[in-house]
Amino acid sequence: MANNKPSEAGENAKQKDLNKNTVSGDDQAMTTNQGLKINDDQNSLKAGQRGPSIMEDFHFREKMTHFDHERIPERVVHARGAGAHGYFESYENLEEYTMANFLQKPGTRTPVFARFSTVAGSKGSTDLARDVRGFAVKFYTEEGNYDLVGNNIPVFFIQDAVKFPDLIHSVKPEPHNEIPQAASAHDTFWDFVSLMPESMHMIMWVMSDRAIPRSFSMMEGFGIHTFRFVNKEGKSHFVKFHWKPKNGVHSVTWDEAQKISGYDPDFLRRDLWKSIEDGNYPEFELGVQIIPEEDEHKFDFDILDATKLIPEELVPVKIIGKMVLDRNPANFFAETEQVAFHPGHLVPGIDFSNDPLLQGRLFSYTDTQLIRLGGPNFHEIPINRPVCPVHNNQRDGYGRQTINEGQSSYHPNQTGGGCPFQSAMKNGGFTHYQEPVSGHKIKERSKSFFDHYSQAKMFFDSQTAVEKEHIKQALTFELSKVSREDIHKRVVAMLSEVNEDLAEEIAENLGLDLPVELDMDLNQSIPADGDPEDYQSGPAKPSVKKSESLSMSFRNGNSVQGRDFAVLAAAGVSSKSIEALKKMASEKGANVKIVSTKLGKIKSAEGDDIKVDTTFLTSPSVIFDAVYLPDGKDSAEMLTKNPDAILFVNEMFKHCKAIGMDGQGKTLWEATEAHKISTDSGAELEKIGVIANGDVDGFLKTAAKHRVWDRSSSCDIPA
Predict the structure, then answer these.
(1) Could you tell me which of 197, 201, 191 has the C-alpha nearest to residue 525?
(2) What function does the entry list (predicted)?
(3) Which string of b and e fits 418-445 if b means at least 16 CB within 10 Å?
(4) Omega prior to 515 cis, within 30 of 0
């Protein structure tokens, strides 16, 4: 087996490899794609100044042909995404569990490329649609590329890959009118899931705030499936992968998501790009749940069922390393768009389980790359190239870049001296785990997959009161967009298996009479020769009643790194007040922006010129994490007469974000409806996240919590 080289070796090798096709264009003469210098790029070749164009103009034809073909098919799913380069650093030696070389030595750094995405929408849709988020990482290891291809939700809608086309067809725009874009709130999606009880656990997650993250750097990632670790002795352990964000797990509210989609549909992509440019590098720790082979059947659910998770109370997550994303792509298309992930890209020491959804993905991903990236040589695109040598007998095909020398392209051979030769397992050759397999060829599902509601109930019961309320609002919004009452009834009947109060409230919101009877043809969701009774689970009985790890409120973290704070200012503002905030916030990695009525500079109370970063018109409250009202009598009085400033503060209060103020800044606060409601309720300002008297430290600590959900009256704000 090859030795793991020092941490920088892989990164340098990868960068060197990428640089082969990197062209800056600085101080270079324009040429055709064949290198011919171009004399005139402003006019096509014509027969006379006003005559017809001539086919002989090879430069025009090359340029136009390339333009006509420069769009490739977008991904069917995960079309809209953003990516970044970085590294993975191992914390410890895991040779007890796996022979994967990049996990053998503490401190080993492996280059990575990560891509985050939405699932349902097209490339042109908004970042903040309610949706699952893709979380895929390509490790450029010395043993080859390893892809960990997952989502920000640990379970999935379906148990068997044969249903994946049906799922995606249902959630995509409806075929008769191509409406709606990037949304699940329509008839076909809810018709499908209402006939697929196995989807109910995933529905709880997607209707939660996990589906509208504040930032790609503030969401968890999961491998979803159960994989295997295999050590040098051939001993196997089952494993599930978790990415834990350093900045905590945070979301936006649904009201914010809709408004941000109008103001800045690139909100999450912009945030990732800017965070890296500012040096606020997103960081995630990689954790694993390791299950001994002999414990495969000790749970009251099947660990091969992708609609189930293993509660952390039963198997704790072991943290084994961290990923730091510290470099933006040089070219979006060449890297983020052309990167090709595949759960079948493995290294020795990591292998598959028999999860039927995972097994189907192993076919689908290669098949997808063939049509998207033009043929079988997608691995030669720079972003997909391994950092280790590649030697095999594959030749030719669209887009081939390697020039293979020699006479032989087959094995075994003597014309090539027997090369490339096979590698034994002890020399780093990949060997599939030798799992005993027996049984009849049959299209059937294990009865251990039939409990569809227990973990859905566990998830809902594990949420805080605020999170439960958001799930109810999401379900009401989605189902109110569904036109058919029979779909409403089926969904409510399924929800009653999760939580009776939840089902009753949704039924009331949809105008349904209670109780709602289960009205569906069970035979639609089972094999033609199956017994309906066999495919319906009994009452939900979760093995863990409540799991703290499932609630975002227990994943908050205590960092303001990468957060955006607004300072509302006008002429006469105190520059000292602003600088006090800026100094402490910048030390903690937060961004402070001056928001005013127009761009340019404003004169401070101390006579300084203060540069305005943005305006109320282009930067509303919803794109900031907190607001600060600085000292300065003239500034505060001027802003009290500005309805945009009043709305800004009211919305901040409505969305339960931190509000800080210093000195005369309280004048603006006292002019808002939020102040009136707070005063009438007798609330102590600090307890509801309104920090006065220039307490910058208190303001930052409150902002680090992300939300102050104790504002029970915030929904009354007219904003």
Answers:
(1) 197
(2) Decomposes hydrogen peroxide into water and oxygen; serves to protect cells from the toxic effects of hydrogen peroxide.
(3) eeeeeeeeeebeeeeeeeeeeeeeeeeb
(4) yes
Half-sphere exposure of residue 264: CA atoms within 13 angstroms, side-chain side: 16
pTM reported for the whole predicted model: 0.92
- pLDDT tens profile 208-220: 999 999 999 999 9
**Residue type at position 425:** M
| Domain at 558-716, CATH class | alpha beta
Tell me the pLDDT tens digit for each residue of 622-664.
Answer: 999 999 999 999 999 999 999 999 999 999 999 999 999 999 9
Identify the bridge partners of residue 661 per DSSP, sorted by sequence position.
Answer: 629
CA distance 13 to 506: 56
Look up tokens 């049906």; give the residue: 166
Q: State the sign of the Cα–Cα–Cα–Cα dihedral 58, 59, 62, 65.
A: negative
Are the C-beta atoms of residues 365 and 345 closer than 8 Å to each other?
A: no
Distance of CA 602 to the CA centre of its chain: 39
Please state, in angstroms and rounded to a whole number, the distance separating the CA atoms of residues 614 and 275.
18
- Give the C-alpha separation, 479 to 191, whole Å: 10
| 3: pLDDT strictly greater than 50 | no
Asked if 228 and 238 touch (Cβ cutoff 8 Å), the reply is yes
Amino acid symbol at 43: N
Measured CA to CA, the distance from residue 135 to residue 120 in angstroms comes to 14
Catalytic residues: 78, 151
Domains of the chain: which residue ranges?
558-716
Residue with tokens 């290669």: 366
Identify whether the C-beta of residue 546 lies closer than 8 Å to the C-beta of residue 462. Answer: yes
Q: Find the mean pLDDT for residues 258-268.
A: 97
Tell me: is residue 711 an annotated ligand-binding position.
no
Q: Is 372 annotated as a binding residue?
A: yes
Q: Is 109 annotated as a binding residue?
A: no
340 closest CA partner among 5, 73, 158: 73
CB-CB neighbours of 236 under 10 Å: 19
pLDDT digits (tens, 9 = 90+) for 279-316: 999 999 999 999 999 999 999 999 999 999 999 999 99
> What are 492's two structure tokens?
């409510």
